Amino acid sequence: MGLMDGKNALIFGVANNKSLAWGITQALHEAGANIGLSYAIPQLEKRVFPLAESIGCTFVERADANNDDELDAVFAKAKEHFGRLDVLVHAIAYATREDLSGQYIDTSREGFKIALETSAYSLVALAKRAAPLMTNGGSILTLTYYGAEKVMPRYNVMAVAKAALECSVRYLAYELGPQNIRVNAISAGPVKTLAASGIAGFRTMLKFSEEAAPLRRLITQEDVGNTALWLASDLGSAITGETIYVDAGYNILGLTMTEEQRAQFNLE
Ligand code: NAP
Questions:
Q1: CA distance readout (Å), 20 to 23, 217, 240, 246
Q2: Which CATH architecture has domain 8-264?
């Protein structure tokens, strides 16, 4: 018996085999869940279709998370295909490259709107459509980053979008709780993915995180997948409205140091 036998999971945000959503997909699939995938743009088909095929997933639908008609169409098809949904995974974020490289003070009105709409409002848009299909309760998951709470150079408008996303998680958890629908965010440490490569200085961020984190390592797609499985399954049955850190402990630090700095100050 798998933890997710007989459960239906609809997952948004698989762009390629490096996506955090793909780590989650694999963990849920291996635990027995029926998987549906939704991707953003036609150019992704050559990557997403073979991944779907590799796990025997036959529900693969394109939808721009900023387009209400396209979302309505995907959820109508999901209702037809699955009948009931148990899990919704939201792994979607976007900000323009300029807004992830300059200074936050220079964020344009349009850049702010794009980042907040795509990275935060999209969770609300998906949850509104998923909840009526979660007739037996359910679990909604999203992905966030510590930049929502503490300043991370260059994360800029995406940090503000993640703060809105984390707050949305709490409001959605409050409203959907009576239907036994849980809503949680996984705050993942940095992982080299397509979206992450848009952040200026990301490689430096990776190196620093690895050296500074209590576990002295970077996190992996599997780490995120395993936590998602816990939150999606009955093992997480009383957890809602939370932001759960999968960051090798980075968020507990008050003083962050590289290996070299620790050696210099004799703090190893
Ligand atoms: P990824 O593989 O590039 O995934 C991002 C996904 O968002 C892509 O599938 C992308 O599709 C999709 N997306 C963007 N705009 C969309 C739209 N309008 N409609 C539908 N989908 C759209 O990168 P990832 O790192 O796994 O990101 C997944 C989530 O994890 C994001 O919320 C990200 O902020 C979060 N996260 C990542 C890290 C990290 O270090 N990688 C750390 C913490 C949190 P397109 O490629 O077609 O745009």
A1: 5, 17, 21, 12
A2: 3-Layer(aba) Sandwich (3.40)
